[in-house]
Specification:
359 residues; alpha/beta; 7-stranded mixed beta sheet; 31% helix; binds flavin-adenine dinucleotide
Length: 359
């Protein structure tokens, strides 16, 4: 039998959960369908900085701003830019507090805990979606069940299934791969500082982020053919400082390759009744502006406001796509600058152009 859900949100990432929570706080029920079997099925990894006007705004709307502050990693905003000899070209002590850093998994846990258990269906992979003649949509899950919905929200990330209902555009590779590794606290990682570190040269990078448990999340970034073999990686970074190479050599666990994909920055669609997209499903972009999660949460807050106020979704979509297109262009420009031959100096110059760094 086909059931009905008035508002169905596909994807329980930051976008989908933020939307469900703001609606719930305003007395509007919705159901999130998430393909992961359980909340802990996947390591969420990494740190995110929450911007005042985006992520923090959405957390206020969701009523979890105070709880979020308890999760902030103090000093996590520190930034270092190094060349391949580990010479410091830019340093920001991260003491200004304007963009607090939080562990992505803990942030997701905060949103999950604030939602009623029955607001999320785990192990619910969407296999197909189709428009029905009456303006509603039918969703088929991989377990063979189906349901209909009056409002279908695609918050299902880069490879969104919902997107095909309104747009024929798919993400394309940006020619950059992050090979991600983890360095335990037992290893000396002083070179990486207390927050983010970008070591860049010759179209490659060793990027890192200090985690809330002080271990290090490292990505070897490369624009040529990626490899996850540590010995092969060390050959790629042969002429780099021993302290930076040690972040690869002393990492533990599997090295995992993540090719970076993006939708074109001007991605648009014709508004269609009963269906919309938010977050990466709508505008996945290069990660070099550090905006994706923030924009995903802002989209969620603005879509929730449009649903609560009953304003046309077309207006919400137009504003979302305008701001994400600006961020997407900036992000791609920063990515290109980082992976140019003298990327470290170019990124340091860009950072300095924003004004003097904090102590
Ligand atoms: C290397 C890297 C670093 C980044 N750093 C930052 C940063 O510092 N700051 C920042 O703001 N952003 C950053 N981003 C961007 C950020 O991670 C994303 O923009 C953000 O996670 C998007 O959230 P979302 O909820 O739209 O999508 P996602 O987080 O991808 O969530 C989508 C959810 O949908 C589920 N799903 C997918 N398909 C289906 C299906 N068929 N059925 C059911 N469920 C489905 C998935 O399991 C997932 O839980 C970074 C991205 C990358 C790649």
């Amino acid at each position: 039998m086909t059931s009905n859900h008035p508002i169905a949100i596909i994807g329980g990432g930051l976008a989908g959960l933020t939307l469900a929570l703001i609606l719930h706080r305003n007395g509007i029920p919705s159901t999130v369908f998430e393909l992961d079997a359980t909340p802990d099925a996947r390591r969420q990894g990494g740190m995110l900085d929450m911007h005042e006007e985006a992520g923090q705004f959405a957390l206020r709307q969701a009523g979890v701003y105070d709880e979020f502050h308890e999760l902030v990693l103090h000093g996590g905003e520190a930034t270092l830019i190094l060349d391949r000899d580990a010479t410091v070209l830019f340093e920001d002590g991260g003491t200004h507090g304007g963009r607090p850093e939080v562990d992505r998994g803990q942030l997701r846990g905060l949103l999950l805990n604030a939602l009623p258990d029955d607001a999320i269906r785990w192990d619910a992979k969407v296999a197909a979606v189709r428009a029905l003649d009456d303006g509603t949509h039918e969703v088929a899950l991989a377990d063979g069940t189906t349901f209909t919905t009056s409002l279908l929200v695609g918050a299902d990330g880069t490879w969104s299934k919902v997107r095909a209902l309104i747009s024929g555009v798919t993400p394309q590779p940006l020619g950059l791969t992050f090979v991600e590794m983890h360095v335990p606290v037992s290893v000396d990682t002083t070179v990486a500082g207390n927050g983010s570190m970008f070591a860049l040269a010759d179209g490659r990078g060793i990027l890192s982020h200090r985690g809330s448990d002080h271990s290090l999340h490292v990505a070897a970034a490369m624009t040529d053919e990626p490899t996850t073999d540590r010995d092969a990686l060390l050959v790629r970074f042969e002429r780099w400082s021993p302290a930076l190479r040690a972040l690869i050599a002393d990492s533990t666990g599997p090295a995992i390759a993540y090719p970076i994909n993006a939708l074109p920055s001007g991605h648009r669609w014709q508004n269609r009744s009963g269906v919309t997209l938010i977050g990466d499903a709508a505008h996945v972009m290069s990660p070099f502006a550090g905006e994706g999660a923030n924009l995903a949460m802002l989209d969620a807050a603005e879509l929730a406001a449009a649903i609560i106020e009953g304003t046309p979704l077309e207006r919400f979509e137009r504003a979302m796509l305008e701001r994400s297109s600006v961020a997407s262009e900036e992000s791609l420009a920063t990515q290109r600058l980082c992976f140019a031959p003298d990327g470290a100096q170019a990124l340091a110059d860009l950072m300095n152009s924003f004004g003097p760094p904090a102590e």
